[in-house]
Design brief:
It is a single chain. The chain has one domain. Helix content is 19%, strand content 48%. It has a 7-stranded antiparallel beta sheet. β6 and β7 form a beta hairpin. The protein is globular.
């Protein structure tokens, strides 16, 4: 189990490894993690949102039906923390901000 990576995610937010094992998912769930995922009818993922103790935490992503990423937001225990980006359906970046502990820094 990658406890160091998991503990870093708990402390700093960011991205969890994409290839979490079932053991790692079970461990995170016991610690207070949950994830919401949804797919479009065509099988393309619509969104993936991570929670920790009921608060937004880590990377939140949404995608258009065509697979184009729409949003990427990062949170740390409910606060905006990290990048906040938005793209149009054609892939044009329309929002590019950065936050540190809830405060906009870029």
């Amino acid at each position: 189990m990658r406890k160091a990576e998991i503990n870093k995610w708990i402390d700093e937010g960011g991205s969890l490894p994409q290839d979490l094992t079932q053991e790692e998912k079970d461990h995170l769930t016991k610690l207070g993690w949950s994830v919401n995922e949804h797919w479009w009818g065509n099988g393309q993922k619509s969104y993936e949102w991570n929670w920790f103790h009921g608060k937004r935490h880590g990377k939140w992503e949404t995608w258009e039906r065509n697979g184009q990423k729409e949003y990427e937001h990062h949170y740390l225990h409910g606060m905006k923390h990290g990048v906040f980006k938005r793209w149009n359906q054609d892939g044009t970046l329309t929002r590019d901000e950065e936050y540190l502990y809830g405060n906009k820094i870029k």
